[in-house]
Amino acid sequence: MRYIFIFCLSFFVQPAWAENLTPLYSSPLANMTYPSVAGEYLVYTQRVNQEHQIMRLHRTDLYGTAKDISTRFTNEVVRNGVALSNGDIAYVSNRLGHVAPWLSHEHQETTLATGAFQALLVPNHLDVSAQTWVFDSTLETTRTPRIINQFTDQRLHHELLGQAWRMYHSKLWTFKSSYPQTQQGLSNRFQQAYLFSFQRGENEVSMLSDGFDASLSQDGKRMVFVRETNGNFDLWLQNSDGSGLKQLTTNTYADVEPSLSPDGKRVVFVSNRNSRGDVLQTFIHTLDIASGKVTTITSGLGVIDGGPAWLDDNTIIFHSNRDPKAPNTDTVDNWRLWTVSLPKSL
């Protein structure tokens, strides 16, 4: 079944810090998460009535006609949609009985590097640029079935749906009534996840280093990713072949979900550094790679902002549980897409 939602844009009186913060859609029926932008296209994951879809819109016409990738078979799940500049859509599906990356062309669906995923790997946090594909996966065989179950859980709690970075920490990966602060010293029983890459058209998968949630540069030659050490999540930069490793942030709390700017000079990311490690209060920040300067872009009360991407050089699109009628506060259980304009000084 297909669901394509075209809603009216609504404007609300907002606090001074969020004068450029705008909700794109006002429907409480759809959970929209993890936008991805490439070329003229915006792709995001949508869940309606416990059914997942991958949606594609034109970047400059966010209320136009949408292309969607919907499930075709019983118990199938599609997630992790990624926009490609030519209009193709990369995503992850369990369509053939194992979780693997797929590519949607105009008239066909293709699965890639199938041997590695049938054997062991469960691809998470997929990103694609040029001919380079990158993802992360656990190598703990005891955890693999649990991660597959979490991926295919169509009733996955809304927190976990919009905070995929939590899946690799033993004290955060399941829904609870409360969570410890993510800060230096928080023990983690899970082993580090590892980054993997492959080139389109090849069937070889390369293991790069420990880390997850990589964002590729437009030419596919560099990536920013997350590494967790003793409860501390920081951003790192390296070349796609594994060389040139450099730590970008050394924050005590959690810096996660990075996205490289089109020019490769800035990173937008999510952090709970302003809420002293509170998992349920995360905001959008930008990092200038050359200077190391971090700028806070959003804030709020009980607000979870996540999955930021560059809609253009001066606009960030992200998902959030913000209430459209009171944007500096949260809703109970709904993710919408929002945009925010960057300060003119950036």
Please explain how this structure is put together.
By secondary structure, this protein is mainly beta. The protein has a single domain (16-341), classed as TolB, C-terminal domain (Neuraminidase), CATH 2.120.10. 6% of the residues lie in helices and 42% in strands. It has three helices and 26 strands. It has helices at residues 114-119, 144-152, 158-162; strands at residues 21-23, 30-38, 41-48, 51-58, 67-70, 78-83, 89-93, 100-104, 109-111, 124-129, 132-137, 194-199, 206-210, 212-216, 222-229, 232-239, 246-247, 255-260, 266-271, 283-288, 294-296, 305-312, 315-320, 322-323, 326-330, 336-341. It has a four-stranded antiparallel beta sheet, with no helix packed on it. A four-stranded antiparallel beta sheet has the order 2-3-4-5. Strands 6-7-8-9 form a four-stranded antiparallel beta sheet. Strand 3 (41-48) and strand 4 (51-58) form a beta hairpin. The longest helix has 9 residues, at 144-152. The radius of gyration is 18 Å and the shape is globular. The termini are far apart. Residues 1-17 have low confidence and may be disordered.
